[in-house]
């Protein structure tokens, strides 16, 4: 009986000791109203650009260093900023259709950080990006300050079953070919 009590007391002491020395993980919420996601897609004859709203997001920080995070984009908010009138409306409708992002079925896209490595004044970040129900790994550099995080990255849309106008999948597109990669400029505010 004494031995069980001693074992219990020793186990409790070890657990309390470990908890006392465990680093605190902070969840740093992103201000979605102040944050921006700008996109640009290119084709043989030019390019188009626009924005996508962030629905929610956070970084996990430990002792002031990035260790994780998760972000959700509102794909229904896709906007075109380089066109006006009917041309803008038509392109927005096409981007929201099943030819591109199928936002009626896939209302959000999600990125979950899986690995972080400090590289000088930036972080090397890798994680899983889900677009249109398809998940693939991506990696990029992220510059982080006390109040913001920024990155520019390219995404191969064909990995997410967004193949409309892709010369990798369709022949004889000529000047209607749309490049497989689109670019994102992301500026997150805390």
TrEMBL record:
Name of this protein: YceI superfamily protein
Classification via InterPro entries: Lipid/polyisoprenoid-bd_YceI, TTHA0802/YceI-like_sf
Pfam families: YceI
Highest taxon in the source lineage: Bacteria
Location of the Lipid/polyisoprenoid-binding YceI-like domain: 27-189
Organism: Psychroflexus gondwanensis ACAM 44
SMART domains: YceI (SM00867)
